[in-house]
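DM from R.C. (forwarded with permission)

"hey, sorry to bug you on a friday — could you get me a structure for this? deadline for the figure draft is monday and I only need the backbone to look sensible"
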Amino acid sequence: MRALLLVLGAACVAGSHVHVALGKEKSTLTVQWTTSSKEGTSTVMWGTEAGSLNQNNTGDVHEYNVQGTWYSRTAQMTGLEEGTKYYYKVGDSVNGYSAVFSVWNRKTDVPQRHILYGDMGASCAFTLCTACTQQSTTCDATTCAKNTSVGLVSEVDAATMFLHVGDFAYDFDSSNGAVGDDFMRNIEQVAARVPYMVSHGNHEDATINLARFIEEFRSQPTNAVPPTFSTANGVGPNTLYFSWDHGMVHYVSFSTELWYGVGDSSVTKDTFLTWLKADLAAANKNRAAYPWVVMHGHRELYSSSGSSGSGDTTLRAALEDILFDYGVDFMINGHVHDYERSWPTYKGKSTQSNTNPRAPIYVVTGAAGSHELHSPFEQPQPSWSSFRSNSFSYTRMMVYNASHIHWQQVQTDPTLFPTADYGRVIDDVWIVQDHHGPFNASELEAGLHVQVPGPVHREGDGGGGDLHRRRVQGEGGDVHRRRADLRRPRPGEAR
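My reply, with the result:
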């Protein structure tokens, strides 16, 4: 069994696991990387031309010694202009430098393309590129180089942000840390070029995995109260919950595992809930700048997968009223290895229209691919469920303006579907919201459709009609093919 120190080895002296996160200011990006040596400085060099990295900054180094010993390094690129492409490398004169990467600081193009997914392993990372397999935990830039036209690797040039909603590597501690190392190398091909934002999942609950999650993603722009969190590796940043603004969206990241034993003496589900209400109240005052509010955590609040088909009732009891009262537009989850998008829903009741939703929309997008494979649907599709598919896939959330989001789900499943279907859009819908802010229970009741249990074969959206056609793929479950809503706003169009 390989020790992590040996895995990192001499090849990691100049830096590996390179990934970028959004900074707390619009003019900053934070770069993080890993070395096997503590010597040298944590330096990032950058510029607007690949051959002229004429700016530099030195950051911090932190020792990780729970499973092997290595060093995480973070440094900020500062004074950046929005909508500008930068080139950078990390390292120092003692250890050498990484390759030169490019990254955009907060693209201003419309639509702003946000890529969302959860539950991706080192092996079976089918969504990353077509070359990823079940047999190997290596699927890095060299592996994916033959075909970058589909999968997550194809989104790098257009995406403004990647969001991974928990469960990494499967697992960080597997093979004495070697699987976690492979995973971080695998995602470098996207995470070093597009800000890679995260939330904590249940596969990061165990002592070693929790410590490594905190250390691998200490670059996240945490604004949590309290600001620190203790693991087996000591005190680190509290990235079990935090928020940031990006484009036209206010994001809130949180760990659903606070309800399942994760925490320390000062970070609990209660501290999160207190912080959350204050954060969402502040976000509502800032809706003119960031009209859309998106929360994300790993376990699902609504899901029709599994034998119960009910989702996590504990989390729903704790959070559903808060989401409704503060007008959260989307709740993004993983955990269940499939894709499902709800109608605007509250307390199990839905208004079957995506025009001016009267409640949050719940999305499970936990199908990026892992060795645990699929989570089949065992129950008929409930009436609150607008679309579901038991195939590996990822989400495109394309923000056009304050009122229009174009939502797509992209299939990336080589296990149940032919190669020609890889990259096919299976869910395609517009979400139109003219009135952001807290939802109103009486308005929801006024717009309720008759709730009929059982499968939904045809659903109207109040603005053109969505058609679902079901086909069964053996044990793969239901796959719904959607025709896009007929309404298509022009970029920049207001409603």
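R.C.: lifesaver. The CA atoms of residues 389 and 479 lie 4 Å apart.
me: no worries. The longest helix spans residues 269-285.
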